Amino acid sequence: MSQFFQIHPENPQPRLIKQAVDIIRHGGVVVYPTDSSYALGCLTGDKAAVERIRRLRQLDEKHNFTLVCSDLSQIGLFAKVDTGAFRLLKAHTPGPYTFILNATREVPRMLLHPKRRTIGLRVPAHPIALALAEELGEPLMSVSLIMPGEQLPMSDPYEIRQVLEHQVDLVIDGGFGGLEASTVVNLAEGEPSVIRVGCGDPSPFQDDAE
C-alpha cells in the first residue's frame, strides 16, 4: 500500500519533501507532479526501482529516461554542455522542456540510449519537483506517468492513488496535473532540433536551427 502526501504546489512543506526523499533513497518509486504532467521517479542508480518503472509502464530498453535536475549545475555533472547548449539551457530552464545531451561517465549505463550514449535532462518549473531534486542532492530518474495503452498522462492524484496504490511507494498530490508531456529538444548534435512538441513552446529552437 503506497503512502499519499498532499504537498502544497507552490510552497512545498519541507517536512514532507524530506519524507518523500527518504522513501526515494530507500529504493522507493514515487509519483510526483512536474510543470508538464505527473511523472514516476526513483533514485538514478537504483536498478530494481528502474526495472519496476519499466514494468509498470511496459517500456522496452530503448526508451529514453530523463534525469530531473534542480538546476544547471546538476545538468553539468551528467551531460557534456558546450557554450551554445549552455546558452539555450540558461534561457529555457526551469521550464517544460527535456533536453537530449551527450552523457558523461556519471550516468549509469542502464539509463543511456543503447546506441548513442545520450540522456534526457530537464529542470521543471514546478516547486515540488525542484524541491525533491534539491533535497535528494542529485537528479531524479523520471518518466511521464502514461499508463500502457493510454495516450495522455494521468492527471487526477486520487485516481492515480486508486490505480497505483499497490505498485508504487508514494503518491504526491500536488493538485491536478497537466495532460501534455514536455517538449523534447535534441542538443546532442550541435544545432538544436525539436524531437517532440509538448507543452513547451518549440519556436525558439526551430528559429535557432534555421
Explained architecture:
This protein starts with a strand and ends with a helix. Helix content is 31%, strand content 21%. With 210 residues, the chain is α/β, with parallel strands linked by helices. Strand 2 (30-33) and strand 3 form a beta hairpin. It has a single domain, classed as DHBP synthase, CATH 3.90.870. Strands 1-8-2-3-7-4-6-5-9-10 form a ten-stranded mixed β-sheet, sandwiched between helices. Helix 1 packs across helix 5 (127-136). It is globular and about 45 Å long.
- Residue share in helix: 25-40%
State Rg.
16 Å
Query: According to CATH, what is the topology?
Result: DHBP synthase
Shape: globular
Count of extended strands: 10
Which strand order spans the largest sheet, edge to edge or round the barrel?
1-8-2-3-7-4-6-5-9-10
How many helix segments?
A: 7
Q: Termini separation (Å)?
A: 51 Å
Q: Tell me the CATH architecture.
A: Alpha-Beta Complex
The total tally of domains equals 1
Uncertain stretches of 5 or more adjacent residues: none
Q: Write the element-wise H/E pattern from the N-terminal end onward.
A: EHEEHEHHEEHEHEEEH
On the 0 to 100 scale, the average pLDDT is 92
CATH class descriptor:
Alpha Beta
What's the story with the biggest beta sheet? Answer: 10 strands, mixed
CATH superfamily: DHBP synthase
Please state the structural category. alpha/beta
Strand content: 15-25%
